[in-house]
Amino acid sequence: MERPDWAPPEVDIEKPSIARVYDYWVGGTHNFAADREVAKAIADKNPLLPRTLRSNRAFLRRAVRELTALGVDQFLDIGSGIPTRGNVHEIAQEGNPDSRVVYVDIDPVAAAHGRAILAGDPRSAAILGDLRKPHDVLAAPETTALLDFSRPVGLIMAAVLHFVPDSDDPAGLLRAFADRLAPGSYVVISHAGMENKPKPEDVPASSQTYLRNVSEVYWRDTAEVTALVDGLDLLEPGVVPVPLWRCGPDGDPDGFGAQAHALACVARKN
């Protein structure tokens, strides 16, 4: 297989990557035959999973547009995956060409692809980093070079806090990042879950296989996700299924709604 320019030489393009499987599901182009084969096999058994992930990506785009319209021009995206088509830097820079974005992911494959994709963009960077080590992320040279924490920042934690068990205090980790943010900053969250959390045996086996390849997932309900942003001001409509967060005047046109096994919210730091 011919290696495209955006594929770093250290990445094995014939071995499936969870980051690239996700990229395929959300409509990206930074994936290969091995990734697409795995993605299609899982989707055949559980079509709701990729649909939920696409709804999550659509929510992220809506949230970034909202924050850009509110004057936010810098973003820190924790657990970003591969910054492929329609990701934060593209959406933010549509609203404000001077917007700056730092992507952070614990997956070396995602970080390597991110660095290659963003090589020509001086306002964006992708770094290898761990949500559980806020100081290291905030002190990284790319972070300090691109982001000014004396001004509002959009902190994005989309589909990442559900990998953090209660024993690691996900709310405390979020606060460690939020404490560094200036007043007028925003926190964007999406999280695996629903009003009534499913039992492990109720989660389709194909979803369990995919999620085990990423990390163990800790489902949380609406009250638990709301508690993560305690001390911040929730924007309307609060914590809702990802397709329903400010979905526009047409509402939820395909009726997916609560079938999406993910919740979303945006909160402001005053």
TrEMBL record:
<keyword id="KW-0489">Methyltransferase</keyword>
<dbReference type="Pfam" id="PF04672">
    <property type="entry name" value="Methyltransf_19"/>
</dbReference>
<dbReference type="InterPro" id="IPR029063">
    <property type="entry name" value="SAM-dependent_MTases_sf"/>
</dbReference>
<dbReference type="InterPro" id="IPR006764">
    <property type="entry name" value="SAM_dep_MeTrfase_SAV2177_type"/>
</dbReference>
<dbReference type="GO" id="GO:0032259">
    <property type="term" value="P:methylation"/>
</dbReference>
<protein>
    <submittedName>
        <fullName>S-adenosyl methyltransferase</fullName>
    </submittedName>
</protein>
<dbReference type="GO" id="GO:0008168">
    <property type="term" value="F:methyltransferase activity"/>
</dbReference>
<keyword id="KW-0808">Transferase</keyword>
